[in-house]
Design a protein that fits this description.
It contains five helices and no strands. By secondary structure, the chain is mainly α. It has one domain. Helix 1 runs antiparallel to helix 3 and helix 2 packs antiparallel against helix 5. The N and C termini lie far apart (74 Å). 16% of the residues are buried.
C-alpha cells in the first residue's frame, strides 16, 4: 500500500469534518436569506434542529476543553499511517482541507466565537421560526367542490 492510500481514510474523515463545519457555518446565512425570500426548506425542523444540535455540540466540547471526535479519529488514522496530524507527507486534500478547517486560536477565542455564533442561531429560531411544511393536496382532494361532478 502506498503512502497516499494509507492516508485516504484520514482524508475521508477530514473531508466529512470539513463538510460538517461548512454546514454549521453556511446554514445560518442561508436561513436568513431563505426567511426573506420565502424558501420553505429553511423552516424544516430536521434541517434547523440538526443545525442547532451540531453547533451546540461544538460549543459544549469546546467549553469542556475536549477535542472534536473527528479530529481525534483523523489524527489516529494519520499516525497509524506513519504521519503526524500535519506537516510532511500530507496529501493534497489533507493539506488544503486542514488549512481551511484548523486555525491557531486559543480555546477561549474559539469558545467565545462559537458561543456568539450559537447565540445567533438561537435568535434565528425566533426570527425565522421552524414550521411544519405540509404537502399541498390536489384540488380534487381538498374540501369544497367535487371536481368530478358536473
Amino acid at each position: 500500500m502506498t503512502d497516499g492510500q494509507m492516508l485516504l481514510p484520514a482524508d475521508a474523515v477530514l473531508a466529512a469534518h470539513f463538510l460538517i463545519a461548512a454546514f454549521n457555518a453556511l446554514s445560518l446565512p442561508v436561513i436568513w436569506l431563505g426567511g426573506l425570500l420565502g424558501w420553505r426548506f429553511v423552516r424544516n425542523p430536521w434541517f434547523r434542529f440538526s443545525h442547532v444540535g451540531l453547533m451546540g455540540f461544538v460549543l459544549a466540547e469546546t467549553v469542556a476543553g475536549a477535542l472534536c471526535p473527528l479530529t481525534v479519529w483523523e489524527t489516529a488514522l494519520r499516525r497509524a499511517a506513519g504521519h503526524g496530524p500535519a506537516g510532511e507527507g500530507q496529501t493534497f486534500v489533507g493539506y488544503w482541507l486542514g488549512r481551511l478547517l484548523f486555525h491557531d486560536f486559543t480555546q477561549t477565542q474559539f469558545a467565545v466565537a462559537y458561543g456568539l455564533f450559537f447565540g445567533l442561531i438561537l435568535l434565528t429560531l425566533l426570527l425565522v421560526p421552524v414550521g411544519r411544511t405540509r404537502k399541498k393536496l390536489p384540488e380534487s382532494r381538498q374540501g369544497g367542490k367535487d371536481n368530478n361532478l358536473k
